[in-house]
Amino acid sequence: MAIVIGSNFGYTVLAAVGITLQCFVAAASVTGARSKYNVKYPDNGGGRYSDKLSDEDWVAFNNIKRTSDNYYEQVGMVLVALVLAGLYQPKLAASFGAVYIVGRFAYTRGYVAGGPDKRLYGAYIALFAFTGMVITAGYNAFTTTILA
User: Rounded to an integer, what distance in angstroms lies between the CA atom of residue 143 and that of residue 148?
Assistant: First the structure.
């Protein structure tokens, strides 16, 4: 079966753009935290600049940095899963992308406000969305190749 990219694939592209912009905002928040807490490059939260922070400021900076790092760790596989799912079911994939954005927002807000334990609600939402993307892509690939 050939995959035809129809106009509905634009929904998937919009979700991918949203995820990409959200990742960019996460990076920008680290830049703002570097300025606020006076943590210069190349210090990533464990070097000579961050050694001068109070414990409270060190935790605050590292919570912001960790949310950004976590996004970088996941964004590649999330975008691949989104696009692959979107080749078969673009609106469903875009819906999972939108849910992922909400989950990442809740993850970041929770982590920055309350530390690692407060990120879990958003992490579960994002994980649900990512799992949906992978299942959608895998199921459709399987049914159009192996079972075809």
Answer: 6
Exposure class string for 48-75: b at 16+ Cβ within 10 A, else e: ebbeebeeebbebbbbbbbbbbbbeebb
- CA separation for the pair 79, 146 (Å, rounded): 24
> What pLDDT score does 30 carry?
96
What is the token pair recorded at 142? Answer: 């399987």
CA-to-CA distance for 89 and 67, rounded, in angstroms? 30
DSSP H stretches of helix in 2-119: 9-37, 55-88, 90-114
Residue corresponding to tokens 């895998």: 138
pLDDT for 141 beyond 90: yes
Q: What separation in angstroms does the CA of 118 have from each of 87, 106, 113, 126?
A: 35, 9, 8, 14
What is the pTM (predicted TM-score) of this model? 0.93
Kindly report the average pLDDT of the chain as a whole number: 94
H/E stretch holding 124 reads: helix 120-145
